[in-house]
Design goal:
Radius of gyration of chain B: 19 Å
Largest interface: A-B, 38 and 33 residues
Distance between the termini of chain A: 36 Å
CATH topology of chain A: Sulfite Oxidase, Chain A, domain 2
Helix content of chain A: 25-40%
Structural class of chain B: mainly alpha
CATH class of chain B: Mainly Alpha
CATH superfamily of chain A: Oxidoreductase, molybdopterin-binding domain
Helix content of chain B: over 70%
Order of helices and strands of chain B: HHHHHHHHH
Number of strands of chain B: 0
Oligomer: heterodimer
Largest sheet of chain B: none
Number of domains of chain B: 1
CATH architecture of chain A: Alpha-Beta Complex
Radius of gyration of chain A: 19 Å
Structural class of chain A: alpha+beta
CATH architecture of chain B: Up-down Bundle
Shape of chain A: globular
Strand content of chain B: under 5%
Number of helices of chain A: 8
CATH class of chain A: Alpha Beta
CATH superfamily of chain B: Transmembrane di-heme cytochromes, Chain C
Strand content of chain A: 15-25%
Largest sheet of chain A: 4 strands, mixed
Shape of chain B: globular
Distance between the termini of chain B: 17 Å
CATH topology of chain B: Fumarate Reductase Cytochrome B subunit
């Protein structure tokens, strides 16, 4: 059962701290080989103009700086544009770090959503309880970091309402999402509380299909697509920076739109 | 390098002659910072393009920067600060000092076409290097305009929610992305021509380094 992979290991804190570090050594070597475009730099006459490691460190620092700039630019009241039904992109693209047939098969009968960290009520949620929450529908543009975009229709509760129901401490800095496809990402609390941030259970008036994240996806129209985790199995509220899957490889953490 | 005498003559700085500064220090500095920043922006931008090609081709890795989408985005979102900050210094100086009005105005399309033809035939006079011919005026003004378009469209696709009004100016996200690409293409076209001309007339290249 996939839910098992979310069980807390005693070393979880240490592991998380490790994962939050920018890059492990093998990935770093890969990054240096691929990401620095050394071929381009050697054009500058063979001298070591930009040392790979210090360039990576510099770019990482600028990315952190860009996180702060974007947090400052983020207006909690500014809404992403809503589109008419006619603008919906059909078929809506599938995108993940695995092929479509490898998307997890979650059993709705045994599914439990775990709620952890700084919350008053950490009882796991069944799908029936989740489906009973008041919903709203949004037709918004999903923008992928790769550059494509598509308009989709999502339905589900406002995430801020869900946070209120579990008694989340909204003074905490981050909300982390751990997923049944082993994906992880985290959001700043301000974006988590945005009125369009939604726990989506339905897509285009149907139960969210497996390829789009059954049983639930976080729809965040104010962030790039990879900050919209699918197949969510655990939601944690806390102050520890947890980063995320793509963020570890160098995607900007805030990635606000 | 040739003897200092002929070198000085070549750059129009003969002893006792007019030691006119063609490009003040600030212009030279911002020119070269801009050159570095725009190369990083274009190189990384082409790698970003490759992640989801806007136009049906993939740019060869030898001319892109960043190696993959994540690396390219890091370069792009770092160099953007240099490009914009430097560009603002250059542009403000050009307006306030009167350099733009003096050197780039007036612009005549007819004269620009005439000068371009003359230049292609190698018959354009370069007697006074402090003056731009009509073709140069059009090209330099045009690339400054393209610079504004590339930055504004870039902001529109970086922050399509926070800077929604800017996005509407271009249509929507996908259109702004296309505008961003074409503005880059205009700048790249300018760059090819500009570097070619600078190499054909090395005196102009020296002037952008030494000022005279």
């Amino acid at each position: 059962m996939l839910g098992k992979s979310r069980a807390r290991h005693p070393d979880t804190t240490v592991i998380l701290k490790e994962a939050a570090r920018r890059l492990d050594p093998p990935t770093r070597r890969l990054f240096l080989r691929n990401a620095m475009g050394l071929g381009t730099l050697t054009l500058l006459g063979g001298c070591d103009v930009v040392d790979g490691l210090s360039a990576e460190r510099m770019l990482g620092k600028v990315s952190d700086f860009n996180d702060r700039v974007q947090a400052w630019l983020f207006d909690p009241a500014r809404l992403a544009r809503e589109y008419p039904e006619a603008a919906i992109t059909r078929p809506f693209p599938f995108n993940a770090f695995y092929a479509e047939e490898n998307a997890p098969n979650v059993d709705p009968a045994t599914f439990r959503l775990d709620v952890t960290g700084r919350v008053d009520d950490d009882r796991p949620w069944t799908l029936d309880r989740l489906y009973a929450l008041p919903r709203f529908t949004q037709i918004t543009r999903h923008i992928c970091i790769e550059g494509w975009s598509a308009v989709g229709k999502w339905t589900g509760p406002r995430f801020s309402d869900f946070l209120a129901r579990i008694g989340a401490d909204t003074r905490a800095r981050y909300v982390t999402f751990r997923c049944d496809d082993n994906y992880v990402t985290s959001l700043d609390m301000a974006s988590a509380l945005h009125p369009q941030t939604q726990l989506a259970f339905f897509f285009d008036d149907e139960v969210l299909p497996r390829k789009y994240g059954f049983p639930m996806k976080l729809r965040v129209p104010t962030k790039l697509g990879f900050k919209n985790p699918k197949h969510i199995g655990e939601i944690e509220v806390g102050d520890d920076f947890t980063g995320g899957y793509w963020e570890t490889y160098g995607y900007n953490w805030f990635s606000g739109l | 390098m040739a003897s200092s005498g002929s070198y000085a003559a070549a750059v129009g700085a003969t002893r006792g002659g007019a030691r006119r500064v063609i490009h003040p220090l600030l212009v030279r500095l911002t020119h070269w910072v801009n050159a570095a920043a725009i190369l990083v922006m274009i190189g990384s931008g082409l790698e970003i393009h490759n992640a989801y090609p806007t136009l049906p081709f993939v740019v060869p890795k030898v001319v892109t920067l960043g190696g993959w989408l994540g690396g390219a985005l890091q370069w792009h979102f770092a160099a953007m600060w240099v490009l914009v900050a430097n560009g603002l210094v250059y542009f403000s100086y050009g307006v306030v000092s009167g350099r733009f009005a003096r050197k780039l105005w007036p612009i005549s399309l007819r004269e620009a076409a005439r000068d371009a033809v003359a230049a292609a035939r190698g018959r354009l006079s370069h007697a006074d290097p402090t003056l731009y011919n009509a073709a140069q005026k059009l090209l330099y003004s045009g690339v400054i305009l393209a610079g504004f378009v590339v930055v504004l469209s870039g902001l529109a696709i970086w922050k399509p929610v926070q800077l929604q009004v800017l996005g509407l100016l271009f249509g929507d996200f996908d259109e702004a992305r296309l505008v961003h690409f074409w503005a880059m293409a205009v700048i790249l076209g300018f760059l090819v021509l500009h570097v070619g001309m600078a190499l054909a007339f090395p005196r102009s290249l020296v002037a952008m380094i030494r000022g005279r």
